[in-house]
Design goal:
Helix content: 25-40%
CATH superfamily of the largest domain: Rhodanese-like domain
Order of helices and strands: EHEHEHEHEHEHEEEHEHEH
Radius of gyration: 18 Å
Number of strands: 11
Number of domains: 2
Number of helices: 9
Strand order of the largest sheet: 1-5-4-2-3
Shape: globular
Distance between the termini: 41 Å
Length: 260
């Protein structure tokens, strides 16, 4: 199985292998202006906010269609990359996982970390059919978290700032401030050595204090920072997922508890 995160040296070593597909999530225009050798433009989108199991299922089906339109079958090792901060690639990795792709990785540092020459111009895509089974559990919903607030097998991790976590600051669009009850706090920046570059696994595990393999759901305000956090946590050996609705969604449900 491919690691959740690979570096440029790994990609260079495996470049040209028949079962390796590089997906550029920046969009077709950026791809034409300069892309990794042999890569394809592959925009998958992000799980919708305010999601239910039904909308997650619809999203998974749409991602399957997008993969098929770009010739991705699910049998390959898929490496996604963006401009360098891994925000887009991390969200796209979650999209591919919920669609059922079993081997999805992210290139640490994206295009900015690529040491070789870039290719220019469009590429021809080969449409195909996928035979993927959606993995809806790859996207935790507020219903799941509500049911598992007291589950000792799940760690909920708030990766926002200290002020956001304590309810002293936050986004004015949110009707309530605070955090999900029982959530631990670890700012996402602590998990990264630089933009798009997660710390070594041992360093991440030292920060969390959790054993390798532990189940973690990360959240932030609207799912971007927590997508990055989940990426770094998976690279460190955790069963980590991103809650895309995050506090923006949770705070809108008056029946859901909150702490400060």
């Amino acid at each position: 199985m491919i690691p959740p995160v690979v570096d440029a040296a790994w990609v260079q070593e495996h470049l040209g292998e028949e079962d390796l597909v590089l997906g550029d999530v920046r969009g077709p225009n950026a791809h034409q202006r300069g892309h990794l050798p042999g890569s394809i433009p592959l925009v998958l989108g992000s799980p919708p906010p305010l999601a239910t199991r039904e909308t997650v299922a619809e999203f998974a089906t749409e991602v399957q269609r997008r993969l098929g339109r770009h010739g991705v079958t699910g049998q390959e090792r898929l490496v996604l990359y963006d401009r360098g901060d891994c925000v887009g690639a991390a969200a796209s990795q979650q999209a591919a996982l919920v669609a059922g792709h079993p081997q999805v990785s992210v290139l640490a540092g994206g295009v900015a970390a690529w040491p070789g020459e870039l290719e220019l111009g469009p590429v021809e895509l080969q449409k195909t059919k996928t035979a993927l089974e959606p993995q809806l559990a790859a996207v935790p919903t507020w219903e799941e978290l509500r049911e598992r607030l007291d589950d000792p097998e799940l760690t909920i991790l708030d990766v926002r700032s200290e002020d956001e976590y304590r309810g002293r600051g936050g986004y004015p669009c949110d009707p309530r401030q605070g955090h999900i009850p029982g959530a631990r706090h670890l700012e996402v920046e602590q998990l990264f050595a630089g933009p798009g570059q997660p710390h070594e696994p041992w360093g991440v595990r030292e920060l969390t204090g959790l054993p390798e393999g532990a189940a973690i759901v990360a959240y932030c305000h609207s799912g971007s920072r927590s997508a990055l956090a989940a990426l770094a946590l998976r690279a460190a050996g955790y069963d980590a997922r991103n809650y895309p609705g995050s506090w923006h969604e949770w705070s809108r449900h008056d029946d859901l508890p909150a702490e400060k």
